[in-house]
Amino acid sequence: xxxxxxxxxxxxxxxxxxxxxxxxxxxxxxxxxxxxxxxxxxxxxxxxxxxxxxxxxxxxxxxxxxxxxxxxxxxxxxxxxxxxxxxxxxxxxxxxxxxxxxxxxxxxxxxxxxxxxxxxxxxxxxxxxxxxxxxxxxxxxxxxxxxxxxxxxxxxxxxxxxxxxxxxxxxxxxxxxxxxxxxxxxxxxxxxxxxxxxxxxxxxxxxxxxxxxxxxxxxxxxxxxxxxxxxxxxxxxxxxxxxxxxxxxxxxxxxxxxxxxxxxxxxxxx
Length: 270
Hints:
single chain, 19% strand, alpha/beta, RM_Methyltransferase, 8 strands
């Protein structure tokens, strides 16, 4: 099946089972934010595995299907986190990078800490393991430049080492290239973006991942759609998307969010 023929939609069901129904090599990018395993201890979906070994085996299974669905020049982004208690992702990264090609490790700097701890540093970051299928991947770092403010631009323009001032200004006004440390503030309870999922990611963060790895019309697949952030970002950026979600409650939230996004877009037209 050609990606152009795929209709953007939510697939209700188990991630592994639904991934198995998709053709091979159709997704330009996979964005996976799976359960982290015993991090959100009040959520059944995060505590369903008896041991870390069972959890890692499950992750290996869905990751294998996700990589099958991925195009040869695509990228697979997998969220996780480390901490004194949340160290299973360390073992998972080791396993996955033995089974698939490693591309990068992104640090999501949440800007503020969370879950204050008595005997260790306050966690402030999560991680995104990036896998690929070949050395030839689609990647556009121009799409995620970070703007300089006007004061900084004028300061850099005074640097006497640069003789071609016009070229220097053009470069500065385009912004600096992003590093693999992405500083995007996490969502707080009062955030207008927050819509009912305990591990919801900021849309700005997901947009950066989509922009750097896809073109307009490419297919984005999210095996754990949750509240629909990946779908909302892909829709905004004119990418096709497929989201898989097991929980009916989150499907309702995602659908409502996408409907509101469409309504807001119509209301802003002149």
